[in-house]
From TrEMBL:
This is Uncharacterized protein. It comes from the Bacteria.
Length: 52
């Protein structure tokens, strides 16, 4: 089985916590990009209809 970090958001959270780097903001931007990709690939996580 191929490990896909995009399928495991907790892996990215652990990466952010464990990584001690001066470019923390770059990691945060990457994490937010992953979250947005997850929301696009899993419509069930995002609201699909707006209240009338």
């Amino acid at each position: 089985m191929v490990y896909r970090p995009l399928a495991d958001p907790e892996a990215w959270v652990h990466l952010l916590i464990l990584t001690r780097s001066p470019s923390r903001s770059l990691l945060v931007e990457a994490f937010m990009g992953v979250v947005e990709e997850l929301l696009r690939s899993r419509p069930a996580l995002a609201p699909t209809t707006l209240p009338a």
